[in-house]
């Protein structure tokens, strides 16, 4: 999956330069986020001053701030759109590299059960999920690098936290602690989900396989058998839904309560008038940016589980090709290697079930 795109001479001009360009675009978007964070601080301080009784803030000054934001937002929109557009093309080239490799070795791979689905569906899903999860991970890392120093600097006026008392670098410590608690806690709550998802794939595969056999043989895919297999699918899905229900309850409770965490921490400073409205806004914004970066696993858990599943299937597909192309070391009279014997057994069994005669594993 990786060597086909990142190590093949025909794709080197797309893989590595493209990754650098995507990284540069993401970094510039994070830089604009930092600029917007600073703008919000100045703007809210201006609004606070404008709302006071002895205000000398003119309308032109407020319009000027809004125009400045429009300029920043306009640049952000252009960079974000072009970055997403290029990333889609880049991930499609990755899919094309995998597709070309599989088509080139189709004679060896076509005997693998579900080979057509691996080449068409799994490469498509892999490209889409790498695009989404990879971009999110890259942005999370760069946001963490950019905003953690900002949060450290802005949190200097915050000397203590409610209940806990005085803590050095209070907001930084609070952000990291809150994110780690959420990640570990939700990982424990959802620890059964990967296994249930794998079991779900097994019953789906059994149901689909019986229907495929029924296309060629009249004695397969009988109503009673199909009903039993679909009942297993139904039971598996209902179990997954139930487990996702309490996982989602824990996840959304954690995320929603996290909205007020920075405000709770800033209550003493606000009550004593130690920070301005603009400083508070910048602190909350920086806290949220760092928190979201550290919550990457929490916010992308479902997609990560699915990506791991697709990766394992494509990886096994590649290993099958490596095994088929490896030189035979079995001497006459010796048993074949366990891996080769396993593949032959699958191929012969599938041919017999489809109504054909026993055939060798290679065309």
The total strand number stands at 2
Strand content: under 5%
- Helix share of residues? over 70%
Spans of at least 5 consecutive residues with low confidence:
328-363
Report Rg. 28 Å
Helix and strand succession? Answer: HHHHHEEHHHHHHHH
Instruction: Sum up the overall morphology in one term.
Output: elongated
**Classification by helices and strands:** mainly alpha
Overall mean pLDDT stands at 82
Main sheet, how many strands, which sense, barrel?
Answer: 2 strands, antiparallel
Could you explain the architecture of this structure?
Helix 2 (12-50) runs parallel beside helix 5 (115-154) and helix 2 (12-50) packs antiparallel against helix 10 (277-294). The protein is built from 13 helices and two strands; from the N terminus they run αααααββαααααααα. The protein has helices spanning 3-6, 12-50, 59-104, 106-109, 115-154, 170-189, 193-216, 223-258, 261-271, 277-294, 296-299, 301-325, 338-353, and strands at residues 160-161, 165-166. It is 79% helix and 1% strand. The model is unreliable at 328-363 (pLDDT under 50). The relative contact order is 0.11. The chain has two domains: 1-157 and 302-325, no CATH class; 170-274, no CATH class.
Record the SSE blueprint:
Layout: H1 3-6, H2 12-50, H3 59-104, H4 106-109, H5 115-154, E1 160-161, E2 165-166, H6 170-189, H7 193-216, H8 223-258, H9 261-271, H10 277-294, H11 296-299, H12 301-325, H13 338-353
Antiparallel strand pairs: 1-2
């Amino acid at each position: 999956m990786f060597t086909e795109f990142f190590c093949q001479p025909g794709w080197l001009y797309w893989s590595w330069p493209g990754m650098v360009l995507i990284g540069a675009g993401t970094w510039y978007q994070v830089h604009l986020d930092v600029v917007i964070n600073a703008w919000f601080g100045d703007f809210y301080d201006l609004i606070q001053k404008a709302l006071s009784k002895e205000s000398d803030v003119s309308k032109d000054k407020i319009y000027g701030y809004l125009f400045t934001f429009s300029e920043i937002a306009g640049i952000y929109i252009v960079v974000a759109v072009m970055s997403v557009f290029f990333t889609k093309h880049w991930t499609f080239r990755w899919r094309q590299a995998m597709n070309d490799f599989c088509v080139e070795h189709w004679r060896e791979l076509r005997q693998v059960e579900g080979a057509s689905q691996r080449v068409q569906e799994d490469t498509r899903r892999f490209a889409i999920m790498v695009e989404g999860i990879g971009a999110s991970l890259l942005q999370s890392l760069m946001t963490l690098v950019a905003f953690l120093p900002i949060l450290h600097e802005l949190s200097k006026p915050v000397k203590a936290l409610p209940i806990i008392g005085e803590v050095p670098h209070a907001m930084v410590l609070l952000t990291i602690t809150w994110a780690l608690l959420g990640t570990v806690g939700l990982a424990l709550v959802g620890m059964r989900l990967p296994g249930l998802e794998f079991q779900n794939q097994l019953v789906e595969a059994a149901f689909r396989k019986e229907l495929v056999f029924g296309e060629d043989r009249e004695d397969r895919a009988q109503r009673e058998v199909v009903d039993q297999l679909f009942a297993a699918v139904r039971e598996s899905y209902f179990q997954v839904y139930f487990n996702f229900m309490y996982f989602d309850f824990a996840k959304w409770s954690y995320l929603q309560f996290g909205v007020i965490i920075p405000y709770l921490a800033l209550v003493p400073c606000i009550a004593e008038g130690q920070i301005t409205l603009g400083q508070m806004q910048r602190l909350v914004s920086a806290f949220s940016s760092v928190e979201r970066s550290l919550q990457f696993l929490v916010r992308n858990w479902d997609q990560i589980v699915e990506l791991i599943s697709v990766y394992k299937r494509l990886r096994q597909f590649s290993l099958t090709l490596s095994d088929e192309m490896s030189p035979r070391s079995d001497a006459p009279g010796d048993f074949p290697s366990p891996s080769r014997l396993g593949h032959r057994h699958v191929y012969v069994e599938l041919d017999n079930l489809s109504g054909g005669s026993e055939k060798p594993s290679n065309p």
